[in-house]
Amino acid sequence: MLDFVPDRTGLITALDDLLHRLTPEADPASPPVALPSTLPESGLGPGAALKSLAQAALDGARHLDDAGFFAHMDPPTPWVAWAAAQWSAALNQNLLHPDTAPVAREIESQVVGWLAPIYGMNGGHFVPGTTLGNLTALWVARELRGIREVAATDAAHVSIRKAADLLGLRYRPLRTDRWQRLARSGLGELRRSALVLTCGTVAAGAIDPLDAGMDAAWRHIDAAWAGPLRLSERHSHLLDGIETADSVAVSAHKWLFQPKESALVLFRDAVTSHAAITYGAGYLAVPNVGLLGSHGSSALTLAATLLAWGRQGTAELIDHCMALAERLAERIAQEPELELFAPPRTGVVLWRPRKQIDLDLLIGRLEGAFVSKARIGEKQWLRSVAANPMADPDLVVDRVLAASAEAA
């Protein structure tokens, strides 16, 4: 039981191992150590276990802040969030019960109170990701408005179809235009439907017209990716109309730079919405709201980050990422060998070599640069997402051009 008493030296050593591996002058990554194939009969002890895992988990990990990482909607995280995450893990607060997490529950409520008005909502709660946020919002729509189907574009996140299936609702895909935005002409009848609009589609970063389908029984906006743009004075207008929704879901572990798993589902009428998905039980001191039972304090890391940066600092970082995407697009447009899908709308850039090349082969040949891949219609594109503030657009283009020449 002594391992439950903090070992100051052990904690400092573990932190030093982390910091050493995250510095630019760190030794080249060594092959990760394989864990035992079966559970050891006798433990190694905390120090030896952490030392072994440091090589396996840290040396073998992808560093999302590398200059060449311009690939996914997954950002590096600030160290202030690491510290708060350590607090959260050490205290192991369970927000299901007020007596196990009195302050943690209040912190979550305050952070929701900071963010909900930015989207025209008046409350909500944390969820581990927008997949559960979307499911929660559509669950409320079914309970309050009696919806029978969910309508969303064919570019919507797969979680929308999952939610419809789980809730026993029809799913109706809607058409998109050439830029992956909702085509208004194909909306059809929506009086018994929940219309889901997307702010920042996964493949292309497109924003649906947020004033569409005002006659729908419920209007939900999946703002997992682009939602934080609302904090930016420069880019907030891209989300004009989001305040007309009945519910909004935002991922904090994307453009709010939080550790997994952190997201919010917000409602224009949170009291009524929460009441529709609240359950009581004899063992609960307070009713249980939403999908989660026991859950930890993911709001703590976000509170630490927002207090450290403020709205202005957070917006500056998002604006910087948007500028990186614009720089990447400008460089691509200057290269005759490369093709750009469209100017980036929300920091997502789709591009490809003009000559016919197997993109999987090209990606496999990249050295020191990372891009992802997306399919639009019958055509595949390289996909670069500006989630990494330390990304170098020119480095990424140079490496793709070099790999393209080798793959030709």
Provide a brief overview of the structure.
With 408 residues, this protein is an alpha/beta fold. It is built from 10 helices and 13 strands. Among the domains are: 2-61, no CATH class; 93-296, Aspartate Aminotransferase, domain 2.
Keywords:
single chain; 408 residues; alpha/beta; Aspartate Aminotransferase, domain 2; seven-stranded mixed beta sheet; four-stranded antiparallel beta sheet; 36% helix; globular
Characterization of this structure:
The protein is an alpha/beta fold and 408 residues long. Among the domains are: 2-61, no CATH class; 93-296, 3-Layer(aba) Sandwich (Aspartate Aminotransferase, domain 2). Helix content is 36%, strand content 15%. It is built from ten helices and 13 strands. It has a seven-stranded mixed sheet with strand order 1-7-6-5-4-2-3, sandwiched between helices. Strand 8 and strand 9 form a beta hairpin. Helix 1 packs parallel to helix 2, helix 4 packs parallel to helix 8 and helix 9 crosses helix 10 (393-407). The model has no long low-confidence stretch (mean pLDDT 92).
